[in-house]
Amino acid sequence: MLFSTMKLLFSIILIVVILIISFIVGLVMLIRGFIRNRLAKYAGMKPPKALMLTGIVLVSIPLAAIVGLSLWSITSSVNTIYTRSHYQSIPDIWRNESVSHSRAEDDIIYALLKSADNGNREAFVKNFTPEVQKNKGFDKAVDQFFESYPVGLSECEKYDMTRSDPASYDTESTAKIDSVSFRCELGETWYFIIIEYCYFNPDEPDKVGVTKCRVMNLEAAAVYYENEAANPADAYPVCDIKSSSEYNARLVGGRAYLWTPTDTPRISQDELRRLLEKAERLDDPLLKYAIGEPNLIIKNDDSTEYGYFFELSEHNGTPCYAYFQTDSERGHILWALLCTPYEVDYDHPLVEYKANQ
Length: 357
Prior knowledge:
This protein is an alpha+beta fold. 41% of the residues lie in helices and 22% in strands. The chain has 10 helices and 12 strands. The chain has helices at 2-43, 49-84, 90-96, 101-117, 121-125, 130-133, 138-148, 218-226, 269-276, 285-291; strands spanning 159-163, 176-186, 189-200, 209-217, 238-240, 249-252, 255-258, 296-299, 306-315, 318-326, 333-339, 344-345. The strands form 3 sheets. It has a 5-stranded mixed β-sheet. It is elongated and about 100 Å long.
């Protein structure tokens, strides 16, 4: 694919260079022809018709190419405008035109959130693949989506845009499937959005469009990401809004977590740094007494390591957290990082990586 693109680019550059050379050579021959023609009148010689004719031809070729290209461009633009006036959704464009990954992403995010903000159920639904629209219960799911949807998300700034890895396509007929997730703040509430879509599939056009659209508030996102691998695939659009009275959730490092409050007095990051100069294990009595029980424990089944979050005292008015990674339960501290609600500070770790001696 890359070789074909480079070959096409080289061919275009070569044609442009040839046309430029043709124009320059033709112009030079035409000028010389006019000069010799003027001198021939005084010398009684034949005018250099062949030289002038060749110059005119060489100059005309690139001019004709420019005129032809301009007419083709105008015709193509008019045809595109006319054709697009009959499209009813972004997937209609994808089924008939080739678009880039970035344009497909921008267009579908805007189309989904804008139609939802406007309460335009019909426009919202048309962004989904015909396959998804045929699913039993789809219409009811759309109704429930609009009942819970927080109007205004299309105007919010997007944070922590996460995309699927760009795939390499070997043939022009390979389906192109992507996903994007991000968070945004509306009022004082954080929302998390996940969109999955196919923007190219000439063999199966019914699979072109949105296949997943999930909108969650902080509490719902914390529950969803608690065990993401166990979540069933979404067959419909979902707007999941959970109550803060039912679930205690925190935004830490840009991610949503279920949070367990503790009664331990919060220490500052400077106090914690001093403690970590002496303590190398999370079960060290002095460290355990100072920071108490963790607010969150992360343990992956395929690893012996543990992750622990502790709430610290605020720093310059901003909530502050410590994240520890240990080699075992409350074991040797591999590394420790500071977190705010919005980011993880990798540049100033509480503890540099320590291999267990």
